[in-house]
Amino acid sequence: MSERAAGSIYDLGYRRYEGRRLGRWDAVFSLYVHGLRAAFGLGRRTRSKVFPMGLAVVAAIPALGYLMAAAFIDIDISDAIGAEDYFTSTFFFPPAALMLFVAAVAPELLGRDQRHATLPLYFSRGLSRQDYALARYASMATALLALTLLPQALLFFGNALVVDSFGGYFQDEWGQVGPIIGSSILISLFFAAIGMVISAQSGRRAFATIGVIAPFVFLPIISGVLVGVVENFIGRLGVFLNPFFVIDGFTYWFFDAAPDLGEGHPLNTADFAGGWYFFFALALTAIAVALLVRHYGRRSL
Amino acid sequence: MPLIETYALTKQYPRVTALNALDINVEPGIIGLVGANGAGKSTLIKILLGLLPATRGKARVLDMDVETEGRAIRGLVGYMPEHDCLPPDLSATEFVAHLAEVSGLPRTAARERTAETLRHVGLFEERYREIGGYSTGMKQRVKLAQALVHDPRLIFLDEPTNGLDPAGREEMLDLVRRTGREFGIAVLMSSHLLGEIERVCDSLIVIDAGRLVRQGAVAEFTAGLGSLEVEVEGDAAALAEALTARGFEARGEGFLAHVGLNGDDPYDAIRDCIVELELGLVRLEQRRQTLEDIFRPDADEAVAERV
Q1: pLDDT in tens, B198-245
Q2: In a 3-state reduction of DSSP, which class is residue B54?
Q3: A126, A295, B16, B307 — which has fewest CB within 10 A?
Q4: Prediction pTM value
Q5: Chain A nearest-CA residue for B75
């Protein structure tokens, strides 16, 4: 307070902070919230919002299109788009939009801190490196969850509005809610884990983005060859190389659905029980997150 | 309670030894960490922060072990890195407030502290602009603000005047001094410029090639090291000779002679010698020995011995 004596009325001087100090988890939570906002470009320039927001809309295109159609044309709503199909490879847009969203946002979330060398500022505070990695991962996964749940919610409530009995629809379709949420969470965790562990390897946004997209483009090709050409157990295992089929597999398992995919569809050819896809996705997610955490634990500054 | 203690602290990289069995013990205050570039200053700071693991040895900060209580230490200290570390597309207010929250301040408190701290470091209306458009001096201020925003007990400043022009350097040093003196926050500041350290710091740690050269209060370094600078119209060398004959330490060249302040009443002796030699006295000035003089490689050996 000696500043005040020094004269300037504008300079109140430095004051000690005597207020409340929150714990480690509040710190991690604030990092998480900040990352979640950054994922959608909130609090950033408009330019940063265009891509994530745009992809969120792309992911919702089938749902929006369906709702518009249902609003203007009197169509039979009986499962024109089923919730179990929405993020499977049946529709091209939604899973592709999720993949592009991860490829755009994950390098931004992790790469920014590397490019601008802000990591030491985080790591010199009262949270651990592992906290940082997990908070960033949680931001990414939550952003993806918003992208997956939004179209499903549109579809669900849209359907409910179209049918005559609003309450009746809820009663009939209530069983869908669990699988919708369950599959959406696993899809988000799965995509986020792959995207983040790859993005962590390079601070250069372009490299990281290409690095995330590449496996989603090339692995399905390899997978297709293995499943289609190599006619043995090893060939059948190839189906797991295609991340989109893995998502198809566990999503149908969540909904307990046996979709008519047609003769020769790799999922039919491979003929694994849905639970295998679920465990595979879960294991891959866990490994990727562990690698991400380890990467930041060992990173030298 | 010592502020920082290290015991045989060693950091080895595959090819170089950055720190070599460093024993440090400093009390709270403004501490200068001096050394040439590559002497191990940044490495030491990073180890004390727990950002780097030490190869061997122990270190304690605020009476806590760096290795086992790193997170607790980091909750109580602030760190201003040497390099650029700010995102260009956020405003100073947003970024510093975010870091305040990560330091555990509740949201509203973080906002208030951010405004106060940014004002304290001298950023006013600019603080709402994106950092990308800031000058180097303004960026350094933001870096200092983020180190202070959570009101730490100790701040580590790694070359805080790096890249600043002389005026900016002055202002930064003044900020550091006020932070340490008036607000009672202990400061460890690294610099390769002795002059800066001398003007701001209470005590000093000198390291060279990872080894401790010396540590102690700045006053100890410079005590008893004064000398007189005598400018004459005539042969200063002859004056120095005459003074040496009287038992003073003196050397002269051209119009300037330097006379050690030891011995009996050098002022009278200088006056007498000048009168004897019939030289005109132009200027007689007491020079306080600076740290630069002590560590200057070509420093007079006689002076160096007395250190």
Answers
A1: 889 999 999 988 899 888 888 777 665 567 888 888 888 888 888 888
A2: coil
A3: B16
A4: 0.85
A5: A126
Rounded to whole angstroms, the Cα distance separating B210 from B214 reads 12
CB distance from A126 to chain B under 8 Å? yes
**Nearest Cα residue to B81 out of B52, B112, B117:** B52
Residue A238 per-residue DSSP state: G
| Cβ atoms B110, B101 nearer than 8 A | yes
Cross-chain residue pair A127–B102, CB shorter than 8 Å = yes
Does the CA dihedral A145-A151-A152-A154 come out positive or negative? positive
- Count of residues making up chain A: 301
Q: Residue B94 carries which side chain, given as an amino acid letter?
A: E
Mutate to test the interface with A, among B101, B111, B139, B149 (most CBs of A within 10 A): B101
ipTM score assigned to the predicted complex? 0.86
What DSSP string runs through B84-151?
----TTSBHHHHHHHHHHHTT--HHHHHHHHHHHHHHTT--GGGGSBGGG--HHHHHHHHHHHHHTT-
Q: Which of B12, B68, B103, B124 has the most A C-beta neighbours within 10 Å, making it the best mutation to test the interface with A?
A: B103
Q: Is A152 left (phi over 0), alpha (psi -120 to 50) or beta?
A: alpha
Tokens found for residue B127: 């603080």
* Tokens 């592992």, located at residue: A130
